[in-house]
Amino acid sequence: MDTSGAAADYVLAPANALAVAPRTVELADAAALPVGGLTAWQALFDHAELRAGQTVLINGAGGAVGGFAVQLAHQQGAHVTAVASERHAERLRADGADKVVGHLDHQASALTVAGQPFDVVLNLVRTSEADTAALAELVRDGGVLLSTTTAPPENPGRDIRTASVFLLSKADQLAELVTRVDRGELRINVAARRPLTELAAIHDAAVAGDLAGKTVLTPA
Ligand SMILES: NC(=O)c1ccc[n+]([C@@H]2O[C@H](COP(=O)([O-])OP(=O)(O)OC[C@H]3O[C@@H](n4cnc5c(N)ncnc54)[C@H](OP(=O)(O)O)[C@@H]3O)[C@@H](O)[C@H]2O)c1
After folding, report:
1. Over the stretch 19-40, which tens digit does the pLDDT of each residue have?
2. 47, 146, 148: which to mutate for ligand 1, most atoms within 8 A of CB?
3. Omega of the bond leading into 117 within 30 degrees of 0 (cis)
4. Nearest alpha-carbon partner for 138 in 67, 60, 51, 59
5. Is 85 in the pocket of ligand 1 (CB under 6 A)?
6. Which of 98, 108, 117, 169, by CA, is between 20 and 30 Å from 197?
7. Boundaries of each Enoyl reductase (ER) domain copy (predicted)?
8. Mutational pocket test of ligand 1: of 85, 90, 166, the residue with most ligand atoms within 8 Å of the beta carbon
9. Closest CA to 80 of 63, 93, 91
10. Confidence at residue 40, expressed as pLDDT on a 0 to 100 scale
């Protein structure tokens, strides 16, 4: 991920990072699966070991990782609360969110969300250190707080386990995601499809915080 060349026509990649692309979606759209899908999978299953019947709060559910996390957690039999803006609510409910709530008010001294405490809280928003720590208030004793962005506190007490999630390229997990896509169980949500010639402008928009979800780039 820290090597240049992501928009090259050809790249060398280790075979153990690759899986056959899904056959039921446009090949270009398949590009929207690996990073978001694997991050959600590894957070929920490798880190949190999410089980059926558990409750999970996904903060930032409107984005690319969140879209997969909602679907995968629902398929696992968990009760899913998604934190996202209203424009994503209908899609997230259709994808398995039991409840969709608006953005959390981090100004408050203590966070409250209906349904708390949760077995698992997954943070996908670029929160401040203090706001990330405050999310621990939403976790039950002995539960799990994970973040793909700002590192959570190492030991917030009450036997809460915390971890930063860093995506690993695992071909077996990617193959399972592809299988679910081809079975019609996992939806790849593509926010926009743009020509590669617009790459610089797209990066500018990303840096400005104006992009959410996956933008698929296609050669002219
Ligand atoms: N560590 C890793 O290996 C790894 C891997 C993948 C991604 N990431 C990081 O994880 C984060 C999420 O990735 P992504 O691809 O899903 O990004 P994304 O598609 O840009 O989604 C982020 C979402 O957060 C929502 N959001 C923004 N402020 C919010 C707030 N205060 N409360 C609730 N939601 C809010 C936005 O949607 P709305 O405001 O419209 O609801 C947006 O859809 C990014 O920071 C990314 O860099 C890390």
Report:
1. 999 999 999 999 999 999 999 9
2. 148
3. yes
4. 59
5. yes
6. 169
7. 5-217
8. 85
9. 93
10. 98
